[in-house]
Every structure is written in C-alpha cells, then in structure tokens.
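Hi R.,

As promised on Friday, here is the backbone we talked about, encoded as structure tokens. Could you run it through your design pipeline when you get a chance and send me back a sequence?
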C-alpha cells in the first residue's frame, strides 16, 4: 500500500457485546471480498493529512487500476438504532481526512438509516447499504469497482465575464478577483472548480453552459479600475473516462446476518491480472457510453460515476499541483530566455502525463483560493 499504516490489535470481545457484533460484521464483509488482485485489510489505521493522528478504517479494499491504486473504504455498523446523519458525516470526514474520495466509501448498516442520513450519504456520493438486502446491493458495488469504472473529467473550454468596464485589452486581470482589502482571493478557474466539486455541474457526459456565482466581497481590478462584475459563465465539457477490466463471474453463498445462517447469494468476480497498463476509453456523450457498454460481452458492471477531483483549465489540472507549477515555471523561464518557443497553450500530456493519476496529486498550497476555502470551513 502507498501509505504508512498499522493494523489494530485487540482482544476478543465478550460474546453478544456491541463490539463483538461489529467485529462479526467486519469479518463477514472482509471475507466476502477475498478476490485475486484485491488486497483486503481490516481495522487498518491510515495517517490523516495533517500528519498529527491516524484514522481507523473497518475494511479497506485496495487494487490497481491503470497503474493507480484504488482504495475503497467500508464502514460497518451493527447496532439496534438506525444510522443517523451524525454517523454519515463522521465517516465522510474520516474519508476526507485520509484523502480517500467520498465516492470510494461504502457504509454498511444492519439496521437501516434515517431518511435524513440516507439523503446526506447519497448527496455526498457515499454508498449507503443495508445488510439485510446484501444480495442485491453489496456484492455489485465491489465488483463494479474493479471491472468498469467511469471517471468524469470536466474541462473548461470557454468563459465569459461581463463587467462595467469597456474596451480594455484582455490580460490576466480579467481572470482574477480580489477582496475588499485588495488581496488576490481566486480566479474564474477556482470558481469553476468549486462548482464542479460542489455538484453544481451535472454528472452528465457532454457540454454544459454554467453560470458561476461570485462570492460576496469579490471584485475585479482592471487597468487600475475597480470593475463591477455583472455575470460569469463557463462552457464545461464533461468526458467519461472509462477503465474496464475483464474477468469471470461466479455465485457464492453468503451468511444472512439477520438470521445468522447461510442462505443468500453473492456475485463474485475473478479478474485477470493486467500484463500492461489498462487503457482509458474517453467518451464524449451519453450515447457514446451506452454504445460502449452495449458492445461489452457478458455482465457489464459499473461502480457508477466518480468525479475526478480536479478540472482541466488551459491544459493543466486545476487547482494545479506543485509538480505542475514547477514544470510551467521552467517552461516560461526557458521561453523568456529565448531557448524555446512560447509553450502556451500548454498540452495536458506534457504537463500532467498520459494517465489520470496526477489528478489526485497534492495541490499547490500557495493557491489563495484554497486558503480562503480553509477559513470558510473553520
């Protein structure tokens, strides 16, 4: 695994205790997913992003897709009362703390959910599952994660901003915003990225016209003049990046955790170990995706739609990573020295590489918009 971790060591809990019931569920869930090519860990501790503590994951599944490690974290609850919003928010916070996408989280409850908790989980992209209906819900999610994954990549192809200043040549100032004290606080790219990660851009493959909302107190300064922004809009193209692995599907009996007996079925898939990097199929419309899935042989299993955590802005992933900023800075310095032609517009393959892994790289911490977002969340 690519992160330092440790496994919890504990004594057996008394039979019938709350902890023993939780341990039983964790053990069954972990055993269900013993599949070639998938590493299963129970009660694993992952380091938090701040480096000051560790967070425990009940069951962690790890596999490699397109040379990128994919982690699926499973939270198990086996209590009398239904799971509430507090437990959902706690798990979401844990996933964010250890840098696992919320869409890669699965919450398993043996007692169901309150209506508010289920809505909260779905809105966040978390999978809320009920253990009583494990045949229909749980096995499919795990298979889908390692057979066909649809990642959604949003690219801004055009923007338009209307303000009260006329006849000013375009410069970087048109892209930037300042606060009441004149400090740089963000850009159009930041606003588009915020719309993407907050769900204001739909998970529909194709082109979308999106109006962006300017935060209170933000304004532009162009050629020394304070501009009043009237409207901001962007054209966003959402591409479906599909990664597919082939394998064989079989049925296995499962333990009914309510009746405590083996009487339910599990769909279990065994996938071939890729001998080379798995290709990514880029699809530009929903019709293209339907045709692609229709042509697949056998059972087509998909995890759903996972938003890639960045957008593409002028040839790079935004917000930029530290590595990307170094490459861009080097290219611009070489251009200013006259050693190379103007590298702009940048090509994403030259800055970010040919696979999707850089979209999950740590972001450049000097971005002023990120500092503002941190303050808003405090």
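Update: got your reply. Pasting your designed sequence below so it's all in one thread:
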């Amino acid at each position: 695994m690519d992160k330092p971790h440790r496994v919890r060591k504990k004594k057996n809990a008394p039979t019938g205790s709350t902890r023993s019931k939780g341990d039983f569920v964790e053990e069954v869930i972990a055993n269900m997913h013993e599949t070639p090519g998938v590493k299963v860990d129970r009660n694993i501790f992952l380091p938090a992003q701040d480096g000051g503590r560790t967070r425990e994951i009940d069951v962690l599944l790890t596999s490699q897709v397109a040379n990128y490690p994919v982690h699926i974290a499973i939270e198990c609850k086996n209590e009398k009362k239904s799971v509430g919003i507090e437990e959902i928010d706690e798990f979401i916070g844990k996933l964010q703390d250890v840098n696992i996408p919320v869409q890669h989280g699965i919450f398993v409850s043996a007692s169901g959910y309150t209506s508010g908790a289920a809505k909260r989980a779905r809105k966040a992209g978390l999978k809320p599952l009920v253990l009583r209906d494990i045949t229909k819900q749980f096995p499919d999610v795990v298979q889908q994660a390692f057979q066909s994954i649809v990642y959604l990549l949003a690219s801004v192809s055009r923007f338009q901003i209307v303000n009260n200043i006329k006849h000013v040549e375009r410069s970087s100032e048109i892209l930037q915003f300042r606060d009441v004290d004149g400090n740089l606080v963000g850009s159009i790219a930041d606003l588009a990225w915020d719309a993407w990660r907050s769900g204001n851009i739909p998970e529909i493959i194709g082109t979308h016209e999106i109006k962006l909302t300017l935060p209170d107190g933000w304004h532009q300064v162009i050629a020394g003049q304070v501009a009043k922004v009237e409207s901001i809009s962007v054209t966003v193209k959402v591409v479906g990046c599909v990664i597919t692995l082939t394998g064989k599907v079989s049925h296995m009996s499962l333990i009914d955790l309510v009746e405590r007996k083996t009487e339910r079925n599990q769909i279990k898939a065994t996938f071939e170990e890729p001998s080379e990097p798995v290709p990514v199929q880029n699809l530009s419309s929903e019709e293209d995706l339907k045709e692609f899935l229709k042509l697949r042989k056998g059972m087509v299993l998909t995890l759903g739609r996972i938003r890639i955590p960045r957008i593409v802005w002028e040839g790079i992933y935004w917000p930029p990573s530290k590595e990307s900023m170094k490459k861009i800075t080097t290219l611009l310095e070489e251009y200013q020295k006259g050693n190379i032609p103007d590298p702009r517009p940048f090509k994403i393959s030259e800055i970010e590489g040919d696979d999707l892994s850089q979209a999950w790289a740590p972001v450049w911490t000097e971005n002023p918009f990120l500092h503002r977002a941190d303050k808003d969340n405090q």
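One thing I noticed while checking it: The first strand starts at residue 6 and ends at 7.

Thanks again,
M.
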